[in-house]
Amino acid sequence: MPQLHVPATSPVWLNLPYELTPAGIERLIVETGRTHDKSKVYIFEVALQDIESPDLRRRAAVLHARIESLKDVFDQAPYDDFDFAVSGGAELPKRPALDEATEDVETVLAAWEDLVSRALPVQAEWHGIRDTDKKAAEDRRRTYLAVMDGWIRHHGSDRLRLAHERKYKVSALYLAERSAQEFPGFVADAKASWEERANPTEAAIALETDTLQRASKLDERLHVRIVWLTRWVDGTEYKTNDNRPREAVIILNYLGDRTLIRPVE
Fold it and tell me: Which has the least CB within 10 A, 74, 94, 131, 205?
């Protein structure tokens, strides 16, 4: 008669941390006469196959599955410093607190079941927020591609237009051509860094004025500002007696989230 072959598998382990309540810490100090580290974390570890009670084994399996599902939401294991989200103004603790250190399966399971039951609504809320953010990002992406397609068809060079029609990736070329037409002399995707500029020069004010006039005809969300460069446009640091310009005009929010920069010569 054929026999069912069950392949060898590894046991499923539950690693459930907990700490002591203030009452538990006080009781331990009275019992031992020694100080106790309030930040101490106890680890209850058990293999599901070693739990004799079928009901407790079932509860442990369900708890294990729920904890695993929470990992995906918060991208970190709950066994160490798993920080449940804040929902509705009520912050969930990182782990349960018990009145005494214990190796009783049911006691630790019950404490974690209560904590996870409070975390699951947070999980649902998190998924909802994440899905909403994802949809918004997809909508922005579709709008960006539609605008890019229209601009390339009407204003792009032959190189850009043909590459786009032939389905090549042209985002960088599109950004370079469009910014060169709309804001001549500005560099797109520069690696510079800057800080607030005090006492801007006359040349900087003139460039800013011209840039503001151009920006007003394109997009009210554009933010134009004179800055003081702390790193050059290619990302290199300034050196002593460096003759490269330090004053610049920047445009923030170009084409949504890009930055343009033009040093003041």
Answer: 131
Confidence of residue 238 (pLDDT cuts 50, 70, 90): confident
E strand map for 4-76: 13-20, 42-47
Domains in the chain, number: 2
Record the pTM. 0.53
183, 201, 238 from 247: Cα distances, Å: 17, 8, 13
Task: Please say if the pLDDT value at position 71 is more than 80.
Answer: no
Higher pLDDT, 110 or 93: 110
Residue 160 lies inside a defined structural domain of this protein: no
**Per-residue tokens: 38:** 């309030």
| The dihedral sign for the CA sequence 151, 152, 154, 155 | positive
Question: Residue 241 sits in which domain range?
Answer: 184-263
